[in-house]
Amino acid sequence: QVHLVESGGDLVQPGGSLRLSCAYSRSIFSILTMAWYRQTLGKQRELVASINSVSVTTYAASVKGRFTISRDNAKNTVYLQMNSLKPEDAAVYYCNTIPNVSWGQGTQVTVSS
User: What is the pLDDT of residue 36?
Assistant: First the structure.
């Protein structure tokens, strides 16, 4: 059973920054493509960013230049550094592998003044 545990969500003002973390429970982490997704109420979950086993990254157009995905294979952890946050970035953020496994609980990001 794979476990994904997201953390780091918070309330932040527009223009602020947050760093999300996601811990993966198995030692094969280093060979996996990892991704961050987000979902708001009534909308489909969307892919925000991904990073493969050799740290090639992709980003949704809406976050490119503001968000950075990274990984620490020694810690089985993937990160999402979010800068210049906008109200439309508010969502529950999830991490997962690609292809997806069971979803974690996610972490809530609220962007509001």
Answer: 98
Helices vs. strands in the chain: H and E counts, helices first: 0, 10
Q: Which two tokens stand for residue 93?
A: 């953020």
The pLDDT score that the predictor gives to residue 8 is 98
DSSP annotation of 113 reads: -
C-alpha to C-alpha distance for 63 and 89, rounded to whole angstroms: 9
Contact 80, 67 (CB under 8 A): yes
CA-based nearest residue to 98, from 112, 78, 84: 78
For residue 1, what pLDDT is reported?
Answer: 75
69: which 2 tokens? 């995905």
Q: Are 39 and 108 contacting, i.e. CB atoms less than 8 angstroms apart?
A: no
| Average pLDDT, 10 consecutive residues per value, the chain (113 residues) | 91 98 92 96 96 97 98 96 98 96 95 95
CA–CA distance, 106 with 30 (Å, rounded to integer): 21
Question: Facing residues of 71 across strands?
Answer: 78
